[in-house]
Amino acid sequence: MKNLIVLLALAIATSAFAQQKTETKPEDKAPAKSASADAKKPADAAKPAEKKDDNVAGEEPPVVTHHSIRAGGKTLNYTATTGMMPIKNGEGEVEARMFFMAYTLDGPRDPRRPLMVSFNGGPGSSSVWLHLGLVGPRRIKMLPDGTMTPPPFELVDNEYTMLDQTDIVFVDPVGTGYSRAAKKDLNKKFWGLKGDLDSVSEFIRMYLTRYERWSSPLFLIGESYGTMRASGLAGTLIDRGIALNGIALISTVLDFNTIEFNRGNDLAYIYYLPTYAATAWYHKKIAPEWQQLPVKEVVRQAEDFAAGPYAAALLKGDALPESQRKNVVTQLAKFIGLSPQYIENSDLRVEHVHFAKELLRDQGLTVGRLDSRFKGKDESNVAETIEYDPSYSNIQAPYTAMLNDYVRRELGYKTDTYYSILGNVTGERWDWGSAGDGAPNTTDGLRKAFVRNPHMRVYIAKGYYDMATPLFAVKATFEHMALPKEAKANISEDFFEAGHMMYIEQNSLARQREDLRNFVNAALKK
User: Fold this and answer.
1) DSSP 3-state helix, strand, coil percentages of the chain (rounded to 5)?
2) Which pLDDT band, with edges at 50, 70 and 90, does 432 fall under?
3) Domains of the chain, CATH where assigned
4) CB-side neighbour CA atoms (13 Å) of 392
5) What is each CA distance from 510 to 104, 419, 505, 520, in whole angstroms?
6) If you write DSSP's letter for every residue of 143-191 in order, what string do you get?
7) CA 318, 314, 351 angle in degrees (round to 5)?
8) Whole-prediction pTM value?
9) 4 pLDDT more than 80
10) Mean pLDDT of all residues in the chain?
């Protein structure tokens, strides 16, 4: 599938001055005492039930540490549990170990306290982005507009963490982070659409069991391919008797047919057009009559054109009359800021990597794919496509450095294993199952969960400048799911003037936290 892994590889943190209290277990031999020397002993409630049985025989126990942050004007004392969860086959043999980092608020144990399971996408991405960008108790310090600070990078208390509302578990699917198959020949079992859903659903079942959370309200939050995973998990889990209270979808793709630029499939060209228009507006390349409008209105008008005259023109193919073709070319050029000749040369169909190269070619610059606000400088100005994504370069180094520092120094988990932030350590090609080289789609799982659990709620976050999972494609996907009217009433959405990881931008981060607060409260009927 052309550029598939590259397209969604997204999916795409720690300060010496932090006020965080941390205590590492003695056997982990922390090199020095920190300000946390007076921290409490790890709470029993944060540990699995201590049973001497086959379930834990030979397993390395998780590392349990205590911490404290300031968030929402109050102090949050919490326990972090970091370790591996064994994933076993039907015969009880361990086939993989999945790495997780879990946070539970200290205090009297409440079996009804909500639990949120978080992961990112790729496929091939660890959970680092949502962990250290939006949801977790610590986050990467970025500049207000979302650009990175000069290195060395820094972690700060995350005043927008979900921890004041829910306990949180970050899980790395097999082949990401520290998660690995037990044997090399088992990689193929996990490195695919079905195997991924099976293993992550088993992780959730195991966590609910070992940490006695079966009575907790349960939420999923996923980003990019993680939204496809969350959608599929909704169906897989309901089949196993696990009902969700809510799913948060950050930068969503549930049907790859909406974003794949394949010959004979014109949907991606239609659904990307409003994002191209928003990007042209941001870089002042759109026609003057739209430049004066707010981006929200630009996108609305671009959607009307994309679903109307543009879609009709593409549908006619070579049968499109010349007069209609010229009108469409003229209008399209005004919307997306490219020359009529370039659009003609592209047969009215501009792929995102070509658009990212062409929009600012006259300035010798490119725009980002994850976040098209960002500009880059390629070695060659005559190439057809971008050489790198400047918006990914903006986050790669800070998140890589801070995760590796954080997991060792603050969480006390010490290993020489390579932590795979984003990529493929399995050596396998992702198996899309019955979709083959067509269009993977997990909307059936989400629809099934909606029908069987009418109380489930969904929150959708969209970035205007996200050229990995365009916002119009998300809208079209949900409009074609044949959801019951009652289910549609349980869906909320918001739009952000940022990209794929909209939370790197300060205003978007604050607003998204309020969105998530309202989403959880609505699901809990508060």
Assistant:
1) 40, 20, 40
2) confident
3) 4-257+399-523 (3.40.50.1820), 263-388 (no CATH)
4) 19
5) 22, 29, 9, 16
6) -TTSPBPSSSP-EEE-TT-GGGT-EEEEEPPTTSBT-EESSGGGHHHHS
7) 110
8) 0.89
9) no
10) 89
